[in-house]
Amino acid sequence: MPCCLVVSQDGSVGPTENASGDKPPSDGETLEMLWQFRAQLRQDSPELPETVTRLTAPDGSILYLVGTAHFSEDSKNDVTTTIRAVQPDVVVVELCQYRVSMLRMDENTLLREAKDINLEKVQQAIKQNGLMSGLMQILLLKVSAHITEQLGMAPGGEFREAYIEAGRVPFCKFHLGDRPIPVTLKRTIAALSLWQKARLAWGLCFLSDPISKEDVEKCKQKDLLEQTMSEMIGEFPALHQTIVAERDIYLTHKLRQATHCVESPSNGQKVPAVVVGVVGMGHVPGIERNWDMELNVQEIMTVAPPSQLSWMLRTVVKGVLMGMLGYACYRVGGGLGRTLLTLPAVQCLTPS
Description:
Elements: E1 4-7, E2 13-16, H1 27-41, E3 52-56, E4 62-68, H2 73-86, E5 90-93, H3 107-115, H4 119-129, H5 131-151, H6 157-166, E6 173-176, H7 181-191, H8 194-205, H9 213-218, H10 222-235, H11 237-258, E7 262-263, E8 270-271, E9 274-280, H12 284-290, H13 308-332, H14 334-341, H15 344-347
Parallel strand pairs: 4-9, 5-6, 5-9
Antiparallel strand pairs: 1-2, 3-4, 7-8
Helix pairs in contact: 2-6, 4-5, 5-7, 7-11, 10-11, 11-12, 13-14
């Protein structure tokens, strides 16, 4: 049944009766028209970038997994090309609820935020993740800021592109697929020895190697990626386990949850779904390996309590810092000292 759209005098757009006098379609008919329209746009055998891997679920649903480099303009184009070609039912990205704000910020704001690591961000990281995990997050933000400054490009462009493109596809849902970052940071800190923590912190603090856009694009080459992962495993096996391998499991779990049959809006009939996943290229091999395996997600969501030695060291460090702060307060005067002790960053250092 044909339908016309007219623009009224106040600028609004809406359906009206067409020239032949037919009534506008009902809600059910409109949904069916959109469903059929998307089906016409969807390509059965699309020509996709070489960074895309196709995986199939037991019910016939299809996952198109786009491997990206997080500071890559080409990766943004790969995401756009894939979503427009396959017109997915669901798009899943490698983000958690703690990083979802980057989807709604424009590039200039993100570029400014990524470069600016201030006291407020340090306080927020420590308050959200605890002292050690918060400091680790700040060091990782420093690395991101270094890359941002080198390339003049904000991180996560491929995720924002996926968010925008998903909004243009009828019936498409948008899911977050990554493990919450506080869990990853706390499990990483717990897995590293004191010496490994010191070495990692030192390396992150003094990262200054120049990075070019060509270097970023090389991150999408699987052979280079495998070499980098091998080096990482050799130097920091626990780091690779918590930051890469465990998140591979979690991402696979979320992608499999999304890759299930969907219902047709007209008759409720279930049909195989088409899903697009957008993840860093480093996670693609692990997701492929895990795709048909039985996974224990609960195991990688728990955070073990700190060991007695770790607790003692943390207490000593906090005690020293509080002693220094107390002496400083004594020197500057009681009123100012009490004011300093109310600051969130200072309260984070008090024994809990």
